[in-house]
Design goal:
The longest helix is centred in the middle third of the chain and has 21 residues, at 183-203. The protein has one domain (3-350): TIM Barrel, CATH 3.20.20. Strands 3-4-7-8-9-10-12-13 form an 8-stranded parallel beta barrel, surrounded by 6 helices. It has a 3-stranded antiparallel sheet with strand order 5-6-11, with no helix packed on it. The chain is 37% helix and 16% strand. It is an alpha/beta fold. It is globular and about 50 Å long. The protein has 12 helices and 13 strands. Strand 1 (45-47) and strand 2 form a beta hairpin. Helix 5 (147-158) runs parallel beside helix 6, helix 6 packs parallel to helix 7 and helix 9 (300-308) crosses helix 11 (326-341). The mean pLDDT is 95.
């Protein structure tokens, strides 16, 4: 256990949101861990043309305002997703809105897209010296009269500043947002984004002419929705799907007294559900879309389970709340060892193997 892992445990004496604030401040002050290990080439991959030196990324929600992508890449992540950012700053839901389910190693949050808005996010990205890919997870303001327009605004504003985009329509904490996952709404959203992207490609900011765009989905999808989402994402030229966001379901097994709090559940209690949904997406994916697996990863075995279910890369957040940042290097080492033990030469070779 590293000094940073001990610090993470010490932070549990604080309210969870205060602890998060202290963590971000520490990372900004340069107090974060640095993973000095040489990156194991077995974990290297490409995601829609974007090279990542390792396939373990930081999920959205940890760095909502793009304040610390550099420190999180130094800590060992292969890519870092910042946001969700909305066009206008917004306060989010009243506190408390973040709960640790200690007995279950889970987290429930109903933050409600608290963030400093696109201006601050763009300014932070402009200042960044990040040694790896940084994505922007974009969303809509709660009070917006044109939620779809908010996504277009985010894409336009951050084009050339981030290495990829994630269209987040799966937060359970903005009422009505997940209705954008239904066919007609998704077609309108992705249609307007595709149009904006076509125009932006002409600009070629940063001497690059295109950036990957992913859709992030909930794990709570009815039969048939998976197939519709795959078809629609492919039809409008998006590059892939992140499976998944937090769940509104509550497994029977939860022990913590916080289990009935409203919001999205994440961490190990989400692992099985999100992996099953990922597998459904993989089975429906006849279009060569990139799938990224998130939900409950706390070990190299969990990461490998996502990859075998069809993910080309993975993301994690909640397990780090309990284990500290040393978890990142442990997951990578363990994943690399397991890939070798199972006879895979590269992580790509293990994708979708069951
Ligand atoms: C406190 C917290 C805030 C989150 N905020 C966001 C967010 O703003 N946007 C988003 O797409 N996902 C958000 N998520 C979801 C994570 O990105 C991830 O999809 C989910 O937690 C499952 O991964 P995990 O079990 O490794 O945490 C948040 C999760 C947590 C715990």
């Amino acid at each position: 256990m590293t000094i940073h892992d001990l610090a993470a445990r010490g932070l549990h004496l604080l309210d969870p949101e205060d602890a998060h604030g202290v963590t971000i401040a520490g990372l900004k002050a340069g107090l974060g861990p640095v993973d000095h290990a040489v990156e194991d080439a077995i974990l290297r991959t490409r995601l829609a043309g974007m090279t990542v030196t390792n396939c373990v990324g930081l999920a959205a929600g940890f760095d909502k305002n793009a304040e610390v992508p550099g420190p999180m890449l130094h800590a060992g992540f292969g890519f870092v997703e910042c946001g969700t950012v909305t066009p206008l700053p917004q306060a989010g839901n009243p506190r408390p809105r973040l709960f640790r389910l200690g007995e279950d190693r889970g987290v429930i949050n109903r933050m409600g897209f608290n963030n400093a808005g696109l201006d601050a996010f763009a300014a932070n990205l402009r200042r960044r010296r990040a040694p790896g890919p940084v994505g922007a997870n974009i969303g809509a303001n709660k009070e917006s009269a044109d939620r779809i327009g908010d996504y277009v605004t985010g894409l336009k504003r951050l084009w050339g500043l981030s290495d990829y985009f994630t269209v987040n329509i799966s937060s359970p904490n903005t009422p009505g947002l997940r209705a954008l996952q239904t066919k007609a709404a998704l077609e309108e959203l992705l249609g307007r984004l595709a149009e904006a992207r076509r125009d932006l490609r002409q600009i070629g900011a940063d001497n690059r002419f295109d950036y990957p765009v992913f859709l992030k989905v909930a794990p709570d999808l009815a039969d048939g929705e998976v197939e519709t989402i795959v078809e629609t994402v492919a039809a409008f030229g998006l590059d892939g799907i992140i499976v998944s966001n937090t769940t509104i379901s509550r497994p029977e097994s939860l022990q913590s007294s916080h289990r009935a709090e409203a919001g999205g559940l994440s961490g190990p209690p989400l692992m099985d559900l999100s992996t099953q949904v990922l597998r459904r997406f993989h089975q429906a994916n006849d279009r060569d879309l990139v799938l990224i697996g998130a939900g409950g990863i706390a070990s190299g075995a969990d990461a490998l389970a996502k990859i075998r279910a069809g993910a080309r890369a993975v993301q994690l957040y909640s397990a780090m709340v309990f284990e500290g940042p040393g978890l990142i290097a442990r997951v990578k080492r363990d994943l690399a060892d397991r890939l070798r033990a199972e006879g895979f030469a590269t992580v790509d070779a293990a994708v979708g193997t069951g």
